[in-house]
Amino acid sequence: AWSKVPLGPPDAILGITEAYKADKFDEKINLGVGAYRDDAGKPYVLPSVKEAELRLLNQILDKEYAGITGVPAFTKLAAQLAYSPSSKALQEDRVVITQSISGTGALRIGGEFLAKWYPYGKTIYVPTPTWANHGAVFRDSGLEVKSYRYYDKSTISLDIDGMLEDIEAAPENSIILLHACAHNPTGVDPTQEQWRKVSEIVKKRDHFVFFDMAYQGFASGDADKDAYALRYFVEQGHQLVLSQSFAKNMGLYGERVGSFSLVVDSAEEKKRVDSQLKIIVRPMYSNPPIHGARIAAEILSDQELYKRWLVEVKGMADRIIKMRHLLKQNLEELGSTRDWSHITSQIGMFCYTGLTPEQVDTLRTDYSVYMTRDGRVSVAGITSKNVKRLAESIHAVTK
Ligand code: PLP
Ligand code: TYF
Asked: Model-level pTM?
């Protein structure tokens, strides 16, 4: 039956892990996928997550289905984490929320909902560059995907003028995707002042915003600070939607914990929108998995555990910052004359190195150092043990 099925290309990011695994060199370095590693290079289960799991185990809960929109205790707390407990929109019962299969699933529900119900043009504008999966998710949802300028290669920083110009030039009522914090892959975010300008232009053009928040807490180590853009836009009265992932900030990757939410006009509107979200979710997967959502809810609902979690997120963010400094320092000590200041000025899990695809290929074939061909490095894959060899390898291909 499948003789006409062509061989498809591997995922640009997840495919790297495959190549890395097949490499026999014992000092190989994987800087591909954005998954946190401890300083021994090992996956890290947060102690607060372990504690939450133990508590859940002791409660001997049943395994009944969640409702279509998931575990209510989880979605309520997830919304508070994103919008803040004192959010007017929450207090006025104007936030519709559903649990999702992590951030990707949230983007997909959002894409489907907008493709079906958004009353204006079905085009979503994403930054150049953006997370490798955005295009496919939104196209498969039935949206057309276009882009706005975001990153300036020559300055290795935000092209704020280009960004504002392109957003302004998009037809009125366009859908604009914004990374809420810790932009993937560039690690370059607008400043708070720049966010206010983006909000102004978006408002002027009556655009609709889709926030993708996959790294709350990871950018600065402070969950409130990282929610600045989202909360500011809500305060400014924008109607918007949000995709939330707990993969990174709680290290719950494979548990697939996330949510999709919409800030709407009224509690009455919320009822109608909620009913349509259920109609979208039902034929896709019926209802979401419960375990990870219970873990997140346990952490978010218990003051003491919540505080511990914040310390642990900050710990992850801080280790990443430390590795940025070490990498830059090692490159300088090796005598590299390039300007590597962006390594430490960029934030979040990724560093957009400015390495060319050819240099990335050489790093892979000659040095067993793996990263995506756009030169993105998952800083979480750097450790105090491999940073020297990494710097030597990068120096060797850039001198
Ligand atoms: N959006 C962005 C910008 C991401 O970097 C990621 C990856 O973590 C996701 C969404 C979705 O990831 P997940 O489906 O694992 O939550
Ligand atoms: O950008 C990353 O590396 C993370 C992890 O299909 C990821 O967002 C990568 C690819 C993918 C799903 C998650």
From this structure: 0.96
